[in-house]
Write a structure and sequence with these properties.
Structural class: mainly alpha
CATH architecture of the largest domain: Orthogonal Bundle
Number of domains: 2
CATH class of the largest domain: Mainly Alpha
Helix content: 55-70%
Number of helices: 10
Strand content: 5-15%
Largest sheet: 3 strands, antiparallel
Order of helices and strands: HHHEHHHEEHHHH
Shape: elongated
CATH topology of the largest domain: Arc Repressor Mutant, subunit A
Oligomer: single chain
Strand order of the largest sheet: 1-3-2
Amino acid sequence: MVQYHLLYHKNIYCGVFCFFRNFNLASKNLLTKKCRIVIVNLFNVEYKKVIIMTRLLVLAMLGLKPMTGYDIKTMLELNDAERWGGVLIGSIYNALKKLEKDGYIEVASIESTGHRQKAIYQITEKGRAHEQELIIEALEKSSVVYPTTLYSGVSFAFKLPNDRAIEALEKQKKILEHEEKAINAGYEAKLIAMQGEMPALTQLAFDNMLEIVKVQSKFVNQAIDIMKKNNSLE
C-alpha cells in the first residue's frame, strides 16, 4: 500500500528493469514461461510509450527553434517533463541519434566552445509531419491509469494488523502530499517562465494532474477512516 502508483508508468518499467537486472538463474526457474512472457510484454509496451513520448517532446522542442541536446535537456527539466510527460530526460540523446538517422532532424551547425563541439539540431519537414503523427497518436490513445498497486493493497489489508495497515497508508498519504507540492512548484516555475500567461491547455493539464492527486488522496483518507472505525479488517 506504500508503493507509489499514481500518474505515471515509470514505476512499472523501472520495476521490471530492476527485476531482470537482479534476477539470478535460480529465481528465474521459479517463474513459468507464461509469466515471463507477460512481464516482457508489459515492459515492451511501457518502454514503447516512453520512446514515443521522448521523440515527440524532442521534436516539439526543435519545432520552437534549433537547439543542442543540452538545450533540449535543460528545457525539459525546467518544464518537469519526467513528471507529466512520462519521459526519461537522459534518454533524449539516444532519441536525437535515432531521429537524425530517420531523417526527422538534421544538424544545422556545429557550435565550438573551447575544445568541445556541440551539434545544433533543427527539425526537417519530414520531422514536422512525424511530429503531427505522434501528436495525433497521443491524443487518440487512452491514458487512463488506475492505482492498481494501491487497490491490491487495500483489498488484502485484512491480512495485516489494523495498525500496520493504517501506518502503511499514512506513508502513502505523505507521498501524495509531496506530489501535490511538487506539481504546485512546477506550476509556479512554468508560470514564471511564461511571464504570467499560462496557455489554456497547459493550465488544463496542471489542473488535471492536481485533481488526480486529490482524488487518490481522498481515497487514501477514506480508507484510513474506515480502518480506524474498525478494530479488525476481517
